[in-house]
Amino acid sequence: MDTLECIYTRRSIRKYVDIPVEWELVGRVVEAGTLAPTAGNLQEFRFIVVTDESKRKAIAEASLQQYWMEQAPVIIVACAETKRPKQFYGLRGERLYTIQNVAAGCENMLLAAHHYGLGACWVGAFDEVALKRILSIPDYARPHAIITLGYPDEVVPMPQKYKIENLVYLQRYHNRIKNIHTVLGVFSPNIAAAVAATKHAIDKHAASFVEKIKHTVSTMKDKMKSRHGKYKH
Ligand SMILES: Cc1cc2nc3c(=O)[nH]c(=O)nc-3n(C[C@H](O)[C@H](O)[C@H](O)COP(=O)(O)O)c2cc1C
Questions:
Q1: Count of CB atoms within 10 A of residue 84's CB?
Q2: What domain range is 74 assigned to?
Q3: For residue 98, which of 87, 109, 108, 111 has the smallest C-alpha distance?
Q4: Residues 134, 109, 218, 214: what is their CA dihedral angle, to the nearest 10 degrees?
């Protein structure tokens, strides 16, 4: 999947198949998070990967009872440490850059998840104090976002998005571009194309979805068989 297709067709996924995600894929997704741009390349984000069932349940509870989250076999909690950004950039570093760094990491993880055929959702509504207690997050770190991760059990159409013309100004604030195509020319990523790309991807993913799960299950079975074999000898 190329980068733009990945951006256009990513959706928030809130239903997951009850099978684990291979560690290698979890690693790839988190790695993508760590590779995001950060102010001064300070990389003061930390990602907690949670697979423990009781912890996942507690996190869903702490996320204002968003119980759908429990289904996700993996939950990644993205945190920021503020000390060094504050040292380097003062209030702006502490209050703005830390948030932007983690947000960039989260978007990278959402896109990487989609790239690997996984579903993910960004969750921002949670009780910070409860989450810090559940995951032993120290005082000098703050959880900013939760990313749920797993094999998707739903196909989500593109939700309503504003037209580009409503969100993009030219040269100065409020100066709307009447015909965006005169500015973006043939490269215009117009919404119709995005919707078509989404539809195409949904069809494609739906078709390969069952195959993916079958493949995962059979890989897991093979691994278990080979482990079992090793124990025997
Ligand atoms: C900062 C932030 C917080 C969010 N919090 C939640 C949340 O608590 N629960 C949830 O189900 N979705 C949450 N979302 C996902 C949004 O609902 C979703 O991105 C939006 O509806 C657009 O859908 P899309 O991601 O498929 O484009 C959050 C997204 C962001 C960026």
A1: 16
A2: 3-154
A3: 87
A4: 110
For 156-166, write each residue's pLDDT tens digit: 999 999 988 89
Beta bridge partners of 25: none
Q: How many angstroms does the Cα of residue 230 sit away from the middle of ligand 1?
A: 44
Q: What spacing in Å lies between the alpha carbon of 57 and ligand 1's midpoint? A: 19
Is residue 174 in a domain? no
Domain count of the chain? 1
The verdict on residue 205 lying in a domain is: no
> Does residue 17 sit in helix, strand or coil?
coil
**pTM for the whole thing?**
0.85
Q: Measuring CA to CA, which residue among 155, 158, 178, 157 is closest to residue 166?
A: 178
pLDDT in tens, 14-69: 999 999 999 999 999 999 999 999 999 999 999 999 999 999 999 999 999 999 99
> Of the residues 6, 123, 147, which should be mutated to test ligand 1's pocket, given the most ligand atoms within 8 Å of the CB?
123
What is the CB < 6 Å shell around ligand 1? 11-12, 14, 66, 121-125, 159
- The answer to whether residue 28 is domain-embedded is yes
Please write the tens of the pLDDT for every residue from 92-137.
999 999 999 999 999 999 999 999 999 999 999 999 999 999 999 9
The end-to-end CA distance of the chain, in Å, is 43
CATH number at residue 133: 3.40.109.10
